[in-house]
Structures are given as structure tokens and as C-alpha cells.
């Protein structure tokens, strides 16, 4: 459920996503091969997580069809600071609460890239967007999170407020 909450805001949709994910898991359990799913988290747990992420992405895509409708020409070009980020000081729970406040398109890309380890190419394929849009949405998500920290005067941003 925690995986699905990262992609879907509405509690009812989260439950639907979790149910759909477990249906896929139970339906395909007999085809599970632990030799093909070796990872740090354990083979079955990794397989389960991957199915839930993909199911959540499917639900996100269905619910947020127009979330990515922005021309790259409308995006201002800016570059991130080379130093440490205030986000480095956040606890995981605090970060999840802030991520939940992101607009859906930014939240999906941020989750896939920063939390689930997808590349921009994989994100573009999963969400059916361009690689440039994925990179742009990740950058915007980071800026949005930074602004949230400034506005709330979060301790992670102490000393960085100018």
C-alpha cells in the first residue's frame, strides 16, 4: 500500500490499485521464478514491489491522462546548485509527506527516479512521455520541494533561506 500511495492520491484509488496488484500477483504466482528476480530486497519481495509499482503507474496513467501536457518550450532553463541540498537533511517520512504535495506529473517522475531507481528512459517508456519531459519534471519536482521547505521554514532549510 505504501508503494501505491506514492503514485495515487485518492485513498479509494489506492485500495483499487493494491487490489489489482495482488490480483496480478496471485494470478501469476505459479510463474514466479526466484532465479530471475534476484535483488537486494529478496527475490519475492522485489518481484512483488515491481508488480505494485507497475500497477500503480498504470492507475496513475489512467487517472492523470493530461498531467504531462506542457510544452518544453514553456519551461525555463535553470541549473541545480552543486552543493548539498536541503532535501539531504529530511527524514524519509518527512520526504514522503512533501512528495505527496507535489503535482501528479512531478510526483510520478520523482518517485520513479529518486525512490524506485528508474532511469529517465524507463520513466519515459512507462509514462509514455519524452525523456526531456521526464528530466524537466524531475527538476521541477526538486524545485517545488525546495520551495515547500522554504515556505514552511523546515529545519532542513535552516541557514539556506536567503
What would you note in describing this structure?
Residues 2-64 form the RNA polymerase sigma-70 region domain. InterPro entries: RNA_pol_sigma-70-like, RNA_pol_sigma-70_dom, RNA_pol_sigma70_r2, RNA_pol_sigma70_r4_t2, RNA_pol_sigma_r2, RNA_pol_sigma_r3/r4-like, WH-like_DNA-bd_sf. The protein has 162 residues and is an all-alpha fold. It folds into 2 domains: 1-63, no CATH class; 70-162, Arc Repressor Mutant, subunit A. Helix content is 57%, strand content 0%. It is built from 7 helices and no strands. Helix 2 packs across helix 3, helix 5 (104-115) crosses helix 7 (131-151) and helix 6 packs across helix 7 (131-151). The radius of gyration is 17 Å and the shape is globular. Residues 74-79 have low confidence and may be disordered.
Strand content: under 5%
Shape: globular
Strand count, sense and barrel status of the largest sheet are: none
The helix/strand series, from N terminus to C terminus, equals HHHHHHH
- What is the number of independent domains? 2
In the CATH scheme, the class of the largest domain would be: Mainly Alpha
Radius of gyration: 17 Å
What are the segments in which pLDDT stays under 50 over at least 5 consecutive residues? 74-79
Number of strands: 0
Portion of residues within helices: 55-70%
User: Might you state the CATH topology name of the largest domain?
Assistant: Arc Repressor Mutant, subunit A
Q: What is the CATH superfamily label of the largest domain?
A: Winged helix-like DNA-binding domain superfamily/Winged helix DNA-binding domain
Mean pLDDT: 77
Structural class by secondary-structure content:
mainly alpha
Number of helices: 7
By CATH, the architecture of the largest domain is named Orthogonal Bundle
Distance between the termini: 38 Å
Amino acid at each position: 500500500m505504501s508503494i501505491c500511495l506514492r503514485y495515487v492520491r485518492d485513498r479509494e484509488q489506492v485500495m483499487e490499485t493494491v487490489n489489482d496488484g495482488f490480483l496480478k500477483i496471485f494470478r501469476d504466482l505459479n510463474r514466479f521464478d526466484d532465479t530471475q528476480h534476484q535483488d537486494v530486497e529478496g527475490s519475492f519481495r522485489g518481484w512483488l514491489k515491481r508488480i505494485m509499482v507497475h500497477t500503480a503507474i498504470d492507475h496513475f496513467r489512467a487517472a492523470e491522462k493530461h498531467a504531462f501536457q506542457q510544452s518544453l518550450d514553456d519551461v525555463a532553463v535553470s541549473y541545480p546548485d552543486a552543493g548539498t541540498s536541503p532535501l539531504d537533511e529530511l527524514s524519509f517520512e518527512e520526504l514522503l509527506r512533501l512528495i505527496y504535495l507535489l503535482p501528479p506529473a512531478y510526483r510520478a517522475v520523482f518517485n520513479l527516479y529518486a525512490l524506485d531507481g528508474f532511469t529517465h528512459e524507463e520513466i519515459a517508456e512507462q509514462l509514455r512521455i519524452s525523456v526531456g519531459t521526464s528530466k524537466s519534471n524531475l527538476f521541477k519536482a526538486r524545485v517545488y520541494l525546495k520551495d515547500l521547505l522554504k515556505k514552511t521554514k523546515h529545519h532542513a532549510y535552516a541557514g539556506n533561506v536567503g
